[in-house]
Design the sequence.
């Protein structure tokens, strides 16, 4: 068990946030997290952030730290795509564990929708393809995940309808969340009829592109006691990295989420069946299917039927992405994974309102960067 | 001679000659795409280059409809595949014909990239050159 607890959370409106910048979203979320924790800037001795693709900066952590009036003893940025949020929390927990920091503020945010638009976002993200062995063939992020989807479906019997059920389950969650970007209800038929982006993935199999920011505070357990909110313990954390480019992955069906989750569960002394609520990275419907089945929440091929049976819903076997996920809540870069973390914390604090999971005491978060390349898992617990 | 130690150079030069070049580990004989500075199987740096016979099997594929740039938008929808070459390495390439997982293909340097560069392409059996 780690000596770290999450003591503050803060997020901004998501979707189209006119006038926002990457900096303003990071700062607004960070200040909200400080208010939530009842901390002042002078209490913060560690600062971590991720990155922005709309306003890249050589020293993003220093820029934000200056803006927020911080004087931290540790200040750094992490660039790990969708895995950033999990990795940032694990890094903060390690800083607290090592006695280097007492209160670490983590900020994320990007204005991907208003700051660059969908076309430019798609083009920029496609640049993560390998410059020699992928990009000359017209790879995109959806195309890379489609290569995984095609093979995973072939080997494990997952169907297009199964993927559609996953998308529908996320929209059901988002309908209960007044802040979600996409709340209009969808059916399996809607997903099946949505236009193909890169076969077998269709538009409604793909995550949103959003503006938004999210921040949290990670504190030493003893420093967490007197703060405003009930602390949420970081019970376990794990990472595993196997490749960056899909052409370099040794498997199209087995990924590092298995190892990162095993490490986090091992540290926590828990197993998947002990988890009350989960936030699992859903950049595409197939991403969620592969990860839930690799981590051990469901058997191979079982996620689609489980989603259809309501297993991912409130009251189901594994309430998952109860805010609506990247598919229906929002996806604004590193904040995407941070939204999963914040939602699980709200659930463990009992602050999730209409979408509260009854008696949620143990939570699991998984973040994935690249093409199922960089993985970080967290096991969290109410205190 | 100092300069780039990128293993890609041999692959790119191979494409210009009409050959699909890959890396072979001198220590353990592992075959891999020329994308790594070490043998990913045993960790040595004793990598030599060989030319593939160009026979392989489709490991996975996708038909891209939403293309990432103007060059590819003009070509969409187009097929992309990961091909397992018989020598034991995997490469991405475009496809001529209708791809399917497990389908046998012949690889030729018949494609052209956005910069006019020669690229490998997977030809489905029966597809006419
Ligand atoms: Zn070797």
Sequence:
């Amino acid at each position: 068990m780690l000596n770290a607890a999450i003591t503050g959370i803060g997020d901004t409106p998501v979707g189209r946030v006119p006038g926002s910048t990457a900096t303003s979203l990071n700062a607004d979320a960070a200040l909200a997290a400080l208010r939530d924790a009842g901390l002042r800037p002078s209490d913060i001795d560690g600062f971590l952030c991720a990155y922005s693709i709309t306003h890249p900066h050589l020293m993003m952590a220093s820029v934000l730290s200056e803006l927020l009036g911080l004087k931290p003893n540790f200040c750094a940025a992490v660039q790990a795509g969708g895995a950033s949020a999990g990795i940032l929390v694990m890094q903060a927990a390690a800083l607290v564990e090592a006695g280097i920091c007492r209160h670490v503020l983590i900020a994320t945010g990007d204005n991907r929708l208003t700051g660059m638009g969908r076309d430019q976002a798609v083009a920029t993200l496609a640049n993560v393809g390998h410059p020699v062995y992928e990009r000359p063939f017209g790879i995109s992020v959806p195309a890379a995940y489609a290569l995984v989807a095609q093979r995973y479906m072939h080997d494990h019997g997952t169907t297009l309808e199964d993927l559609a059920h996953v998308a529908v389950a996320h929209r059901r969650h988002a309908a209960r969340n007044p802040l979600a970007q996409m709340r209009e209800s969808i059916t399996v038929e809607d997903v099946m009829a949505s236009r193909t982006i890169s076969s077998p993935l269709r538009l409604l199999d793909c995550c949103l592109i959003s503006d938004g920011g999210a921040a949290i505070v990670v504190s030493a357990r003893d420093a967490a006691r007197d703060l405003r909110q009930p602390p949420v313990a970081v019970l376990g954390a794990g990472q595993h990295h196997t490749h960056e480019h899909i052409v370099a992955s040794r498997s199209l069906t087995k990924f590092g989420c298995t190892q990162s989750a095993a490490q986090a569960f091992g540290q926590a002394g828990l197993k998947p069946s002990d988890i009350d609520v989960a936030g699992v990275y859903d950049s595409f419907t197939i991403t969620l299917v592969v990860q839930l089945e690799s981590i051990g929440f469901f058997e191979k091929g079982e996620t689609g039927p489980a989603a259809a049976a309501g297993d991912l819903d409130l009251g189901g076997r594994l309430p998952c992405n109860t805010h609506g996920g990247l598919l229906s809540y929002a996806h604004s870069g590193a904040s995407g994974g941070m939204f999963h973390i914040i939602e699980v914390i709200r659930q463990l604090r009992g602050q999730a309102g209409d979408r509260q999971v009854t008696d949620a005491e143990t939570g699991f978060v998984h973040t994935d960067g690249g093409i199922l390349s960089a993985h970080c898992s967290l096991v969290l617990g109410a205190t | 001679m100092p300069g780039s130690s990128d293993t890609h150079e041999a692959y790119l030069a191979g494409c210009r000659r009409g050959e699909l070049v890959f890396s072979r580990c001198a220590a353990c004989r592992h075959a891999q795409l020329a994308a790594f500075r070490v043998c990913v199987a045993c960790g040595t740096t004793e990598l030599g280059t060989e030319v593939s016979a160009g026979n392989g099997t489709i490991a996975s594929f996708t038909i891209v409809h939403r293309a990432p740039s103007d060059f590819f938008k003009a070509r969409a929808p187009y097929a992309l595949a990961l091909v397992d070459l018989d020598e034991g390495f995997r490469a991405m390439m475009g496809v001529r014909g209708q791809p399917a997982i497990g389908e046998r293909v012949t690889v030729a340097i018949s494609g052209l990239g956005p910069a006019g560069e020669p690229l490998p392409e997977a030809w489905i059996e029966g597809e006419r050159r």
DSSP finds two helices and eight strands in chain B.
